[in-house]
Amino acid sequence: MKKTLVCLALGALLAMPLAYAQPKSMNIGGAGARAMGMGGAFTAIADDATATFYNPAGLAQLKRPEVTAVGYFASKQTVWDVTFTDHPEFNESSENTANNFSLNFGSIIYPLNPGGRNFVLAGSGHMIIDMYSGEAWAFENSYDRDLKETGAESHEMNQKGGIYSYSLFGACEVSKRLLLGFGAGIFAGSYNQTKIEEFKSSETSKIQKETRLENNSFGGGPQFTIGTLVKVNRKLKIGAMIKPPSVMTMEGESRSEDYYSWESSEARAPDITNGELDIPLMVAGGVSYRPRDLLTLACDYHLLQWSESKMRDEQGNEKMGMVWKDSGQVHAGLEYLAPIFAGYPTPVRLGFYSYPMALNTSLQSEKLMDDIYDYVDDHPSVDKDDLPPYLFEWEQRTRYFYTLGFGVITANTVFDIAMEYSPFEETEMFGGDNEEVPVTATNNLLKLYFSGIYKF
C-alpha cells in the first residue's frame, strides 16, 4: 500500500509543471508597462500604442508618429508538498524557480489628419501566451511502476516559445467626443520542449531514461477587434472593446527515446499533435475618471467566453478532459503624475486584477484525467461521448494580481516599468488504497515589464 501511495503522489507531483507548460492553459497576457502598472484597467484610457490590445479606438488620441517596444522578465517559484497523514516517512517536497525574458509588445503608429480629424494607422505584435517553462528536480526515494522497484528519480524539462498576435489597425476621431477603432490580425508562434527523466533502482542498479523532443507551431485567424471610446467630459471617459471568436491552429511533432541499462534503447515513432483551438469571444468595458488634473482612476471588466471553446485533434475529435469555463476579470488602477525626476512628469501607478482560471489548474487537470481513465477502465463498453457529466466537474479558482509601476516622460520619449505579483496555492486530494493524499503547490509569480516609446 505504501508503495502505491508513493507512486500515486509522485506521479501527480511530476505531472504538475507539465500541465502549466502546455498551450491548454491559455491565460492571455496583457500588454505594456503602463497598462500593467494600473492592473490592466486601460479600456477607457487607451492613449498609448497598447490601445491595439485594450481598445483600438484610443489610438485616435495619438497626434505624433511613434514606435514602442516592451519586454518583460518573469520569475515563477513553486514548492510542491506531498503529505501522508498515516505515513509521514514518505512525505516529499520539491522546489523550483523558472526565469525568462521575452518581448511582450511592439508597434508602429502613424497619425494622419484628413479634414481636420485625426486618423491613425498602426501595426503591432503582441505575445498573448508565453510558453516558457523550465523545471529540474530529483527525489532520493521514488517508486517506478514498470520496474516495481524503489530508487532515485530525476527530471529536467526546458520549454521556450510563445503565441503571438500580429495585427493592423485603424482609428478615427468621429467627433471631439467619439472615437472608433478597428483591427484585424493573425496568430503565429511556436514552442520547443526537451524533457529528460531518469530512474536508477536502489535494488538492482537498473537505469531507465526517457528523452522527449517536441516541436509545435501555431497559426490561424483572422482575429478582429472593434473598439469605441466616448469622452463624456474633460474628466470622464467610457470605453468598450470586442473581439469576436476565432480559431487557432496547432501543428506539432513529438519524438521520444527510451534507454534501458539492461537492454538496447528504443526510439519511438513520431507522435503527430495537430489540432485546433477555438479562441473565445472577448469583451471589455471600462471607465476612467480624473478627479484632479494629475490623478486618473480607472476600472475595467473583461469577459472571455471560454465555455464555448473546444480543443480538437486533427480528425476534429474533441479532447477529453478539456472543460473550459468563462473568465470574468475585474481590473482597477490609478495613475498619479508627480514631477519627481528632474522636473519631468513621473507617473506613479498602482493596480489590481482578478483572473478566474478558464481551464482547470494543473492539479485539478491531473485528478480529472485520473477519474476519467478510472471510469473508462471500469466501464470499457461505454463510449467516450456518453461519459457522465460529473466526471468533468471542477471548481473554478481565481488568481489575484497586484501591480506597481513608474515612468518618466520627456519631450520625445517615455520610459515605463511595472511589477506584477501573484501568490497562489492549490491543493488536491489524490486517493490510493483507501487513503487520501493531499498534494499542494505553492506558487509565487513575479513579472517585470519594461517599456520604451520614441515619438518623432
Question: TL;DR of this structure?
Answer:
With 456 residues, the protein is mainly β.
**Biggest β-sheet: strands ordered side by side in the sheet:** 1-2-3-5-6-8-9-14-15-17-18-19-20-21
Shape: elongated
The CATH superfamily is known as Outer membrane protein transport protein (OMPP1/FadL/TodX)
CATH class: Mainly Beta
Give the uncertain stretches in residue-range form.
1-24
- Count all strands and give the number: 21
Largest sheet, in brief, is: 14 strands, antiparallel, barrel
Helix residue percentage: 10-25%
Percent in strands: over 45%
Mean pLDDT: 83
Overall radius of gyration: 25 Å
Separation of the first and last Cα atoms:
71 Å
Q: Which class do the helix and strand fractions yield?
A: mainly beta
Count of DSSP H/I helices: 4
CATH fold-level assignment: Porin
Order of helices and strands: HHHEEEEEEEEEEEEEEEEEEHEEE
The CATH architecture assignment turns out to be Beta Barrel
- How many discrete domains? 1
Q: Any overview of this molecule?
A:
- By secondary structure, this protein is mainly beta.
- The protein has a single domain (2-455), classed as Outer membrane protein transport protein (OMPP1/FadL/TodX) (Porin, Beta Barrel).
- Helix content is 10%, strand content 60%.
- It contains 4 helices and 21 strands.
- The chain has helices at residues 2-21, 33-37, 51-54, 362-378; strands at residues 66-82, 92-112, 119-130, 133-144, 149-173, 178-201, 207-220, 223-231, 236-243, 246-260, 263-267, 271-272, 275-279, 282-292, 295-304, 311-313, 327-341, 344-356, 398-409, 413-432, 435-455.
- It has a 14-stranded antiparallel beta barrel.
- The radius of gyration is 25 Å and the shape is elongated.
- The protein starts with a helix and ends with a strand.
